[in-house]
């Protein structure tokens, strides 16, 4: 994931402190009570990483079996692969079967909208493509989690009516989180307020992307009592910094949890994905220790002390 990437020597100079909760978050959580068993889903962006063989995948694992092994370690996947091609029913069924066979405590796929909808058609005249997308991913059945609609950097606030119209056209029970990247969505107060009020009224979530070079995307606006966080780490050299950021998320999520947060979807990325399982394992341990989640820790094939 290249979004928000900075030079390695720039990382120590970045202010990673979180802003206060946004105005819409205060509205969304107002009057809610802490629920007994909030749900937690932690995963990566893809399962097809050859670097994870001998690390979390057994030696000589074939690529065709990567998902089988991935599902033994994580309870969700932020599915970026679908961005590049429309999901086919037979393939989705195969993925579902593999995840069901490997998962211990349930599993969720959170598929990205295909680029033909978001980046090529830019949400206009996208009815047929959207129907195909929904038809394909519906084959995940009970394993289908929320989907996320990522718009390009050049999709700015002048497209607000297009975005709203498109979201209104989706089935009401179709759970969607929206990721926006143009800086004006967050820097212009009137635009920011209109955006998050609109998402709240339509019962759509707002993705929070924590990337080093785009701190404005850490907007801290909850439009529904659930969060979808895309965390972009900086690799093993900056591991202490990344762990510190995870700790900040644990603290913030805990405050939201105490005010009625129901579900947390936390997906881990790195510019070099080789060490992502290490970052994920730390995240799982912190969530289990301080947030009450009960997600199994990652079972490394190589001893952890050899990985650090």
From TrEMBL:
<dbReference type="InterPro" id="IPR036520">
    <property type="entry name" value="UPF0759_sf"/>
</dbReference>
<dbReference type="InterPro" id="IPR002763">
    <property type="entry name" value="DUF72"/>
</dbReference>
<dbReference type="Pfam" id="PF01904">
    <property type="entry name" value="DUF72"/>
</dbReference>
<protein>
    <submittedName>
        <fullName>Uncharacterized protein YecE (DUF72 family)</fullName>
    </submittedName>
</protein>
């Amino acid at each position: 994931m290249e979004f928000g990437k900075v030079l390695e020597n720039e990382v120590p100079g970045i202010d990673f402190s979180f802003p206060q909760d946004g105005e819409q978050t205060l509205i969304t959580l107002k009057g809610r009570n802490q629920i007994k068993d909030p749900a937690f889903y932690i995963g990566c962006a893809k399962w097809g990483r050859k670097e994870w063989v001998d690390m979390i995948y057994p030696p000589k694992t074939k690529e065709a079996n990567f998902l089988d092994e991935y599902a033994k370690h994580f309870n969700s996947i932020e599915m970026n692969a679908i961005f590049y091609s429309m999901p086919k029913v037979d393939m989705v069924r195969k993925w579902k079967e593999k995840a069901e066979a490997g998962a211990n405590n349930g599993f969720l796929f959170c598929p990205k909208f295909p680029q033909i909808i978001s980046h090529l058609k830019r949400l206009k005249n996208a009815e047929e493509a959207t129907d195909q997308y929904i038809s394909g991913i519906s084959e995940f059945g009970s394993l289908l989690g929320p989907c996320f609609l990522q718009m390009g950097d050049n999709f700015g606030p002048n497209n607000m009516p297009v975005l709203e119209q498109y979201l209104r056209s989706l089935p009401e029970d179709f759970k969607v989180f929206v990721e926006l990247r143009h800086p004006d969505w967050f820097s212009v107060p009137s635009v920011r307020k209109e955006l998050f009020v609109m998402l709240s009224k339509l019962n759509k979530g707002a993705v929070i992307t924590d990337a080093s070079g785009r701190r404005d995307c850490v907007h801290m606006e909850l439009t529904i009592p659930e969060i979808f966080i895309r965390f972009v780490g900086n690799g093993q050299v900056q591991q202490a910094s990344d762990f510190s950021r995870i700790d900040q998320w644990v603290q913030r999520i805990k405050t939201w949890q105490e005010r009625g947060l129901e579900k947390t979807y936390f997906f881990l990325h790195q510019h070099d994905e080789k060490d992502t399982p290490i970052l994920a394992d730390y995240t799982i341990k912190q969530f289990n220790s301080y947030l009450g989640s009960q997600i199994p820790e990652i079972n490394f094939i190589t001893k952890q002390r050899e990985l650090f």
